[in-house]
Write a structure and sequence with these properties.
Keywords: Periplasm, Signal. This protein is an alpha/beta fold. The protein folds into two domains: about 160 residues, Periplasmic binding protein-like II (D-Maltodextrin-Binding Protein, domain 2, 3-Layer(aba) Sandwich), CATH 3.40.190; about 180 residues, D-Maltodextrin-Binding Protein, domain 2. About 45% of the residues lie in helices and about 15% in strands. The strands form two sheets. Strands 1, 2, 3, 6, 7, 8, 9, 10, 11 and 12 form a ten-stranded mixed beta sheet that branches. Strands 4-5 form a two-stranded antiparallel ribbon. The chain is globular, with a radius of gyration of 23 Å.
């Protein structure tokens, strides 16, 4: 009897240890109609599936232009077929949807959607306005167990504690056209890229840090490559950094190697105002090497907008990635269906299909496109070993913004 009592107690303690607790507060900021404090990843399906089916529907907001066919033709029908839950799919502007959600919350009315897929640039605002449910989805969703747990808790340089599910990962890269630069000759370090640009003026196409995400990502990657010293590099992971602290850091000596790099690079590179501009210059042969987003280049090659001879790499010191995610809003009218939807979109097969269709990477650590894709598909992506070993997290949002502003004001304008 004592052994049985002890076993029951141990089971209860184990369950309690995995019960979710509010992020950054003593209370949950949502009232879903079921007891969140008793919900665990172990009992998730037993509790959520029946209630989600009873709710019967949900509204899903998508801010993207490129994911529409993936959702309408593949993912949403698969979810509806598996659970019998109807999805009302709406698309629109990222910032407008966030402002609409904030206004609804301030007015005390229901959220316009039950699940939001929005850009990571809005994560800080969502947290400040308290419209993102403070539920640690990284701990609660059974399929979130497959995520890189650092990525599952920090997005766009903002620590959200796991409330923002990393549905889409994007990775900055260097693209090169093998008709001009062979794989054996392509520069594989930041310094080698600069030397190649100096030897081949105008052929290295770099998106401006203010004109497109790949340019800002390259700027951050140069910082990873050039900044030395533990004190200087400690700020790369200081996600509590304020705007004033970021400006002070930028004005200090730590980033001088980055400014020196750009002073040499800007006169010999072709600086563009957008990601598409960079890819188009490589496509028409005006450039041979360029900064890029992996998923965008993957898509361009697949649609014939870039030649099939284009390949992608991550330089040896690493390049930053980012990503956009989904969240449960405060005021969701169908919270159980929303939680089930978020878990469904996190599973291995869904994330693999997303990569194959859109070139959209996953925060999951168990996906290897080399084992599942055609040779042509795999060739459009960054090599798997490079992605696994060289992908870096973005710098804190205030820091990368201050670095961008410094380059625009002091280096780009100085050359115009």
């Amino acid at each position: 009897m004592k052994a049985l009592t002890a076993a029951i107690a141990a089971t209860l303690m184990s369950t309690a240890a995995y019960a979710v607790t509010p992020i950054g507060s003593e209370e949950f900021n949502i009232q879903p109609g079921f007891e969140l404090a008793e919900l665990t990843s172990e009992n998730f399906y037993d509790v959520i599936v029946p209630q989600a089916k009873e709710e019967g529907k949900l509204t899903f907001f998508d801010f993207t232009n490129s994911f529409g066919p993936l959702f309408t033709d593949r993912l949403l029908p698969a979810f509806e077929e598996e659970y019998g839950i109807t999805v009302n799919y709406i698309r629109g502007n990222n910032e407008a949807a966030v402002q609409q959600l904030i206004a609804a919350n301030n007015s005390g009315v229901a959220a316009p959607a039950d699940v939001y897929f929005v850009g990571s640039s809005t994560t800080g605002l969502l947290l400040r306005e308290n419209v993102m449910a403070n539920v640690p989805l990284a701990d609660l969703l059974p399929n979130a167990d497959g995520f890189n747990q650092d990525i599952a808790r920090v997005s766009g340089g903002v620590d959200h504690g796991g409330s923002y599910v990393p549905f889409h990962r994007n990775q900055t890269s260097i693209i090169y056209d093998t008709r001009t630069v062979s794989g054996d000759d392509v520069p594989t370090t930041a310094d080698a890229l600069l030397a190649w640009a100096e030897a081949n003026p105008g052929k290295f196409v770099v998106t401006s840090p203010a004109g497109g995400g790949s340019g800002n990502g390259f700027m951050q990657s140069v910082a990873y490559a050039k900044v030395e010293g533990d004190d200087c590099r400690a700020e790369f992971s200081n996600f509590s950094m304020t705007e004033d602290e970021a400006k002070a850091y930028v004005e200090g000596a730590c980033l001088n190697p980055v400014w020196d790099y750009y002073k040499k690079l800007i006169p010999v590179a072709e600086i563009t105002n957008g990601n598409s501009d960079t890819l188009n210059l490589v496509a028409n042969g005006a450039g041979a090497i360029g900064t890029a987003w992996e998923d965008m280049a993957y898509d361009f090659i697949g649609r014939g907008l870039l030649p099939p001879t284009v390949r992608q790499q991550i330089i040896e010191s690493g390049q930053v990635g980012g990503g956009d995610g989904m969240f449960l809003p405060v005021g969701s009218e169908h919270p159980a269906a929303a939680l089930l939807f978020l878990d469904f979109m996190s599973q291995h097969d869904i994330q693999l299909e997303k990569l194959g269709v859109n070139g959209s990477r996953s925060a999951r650590t168990d996906i290897d496109p080399g084992k599942s894709f055609t040779e042509e598909q795999a060739a459009r992506l960054i090599p798997t070993n490079e992605f696994a070993e060289r992908a870096l997290p973005s710098l804190p949002a205030p820091l990368r913004a201050a670095m961008r502003d410094y380059i625009v004001a002091n280096l780009l304008r100085a050359t115009n």
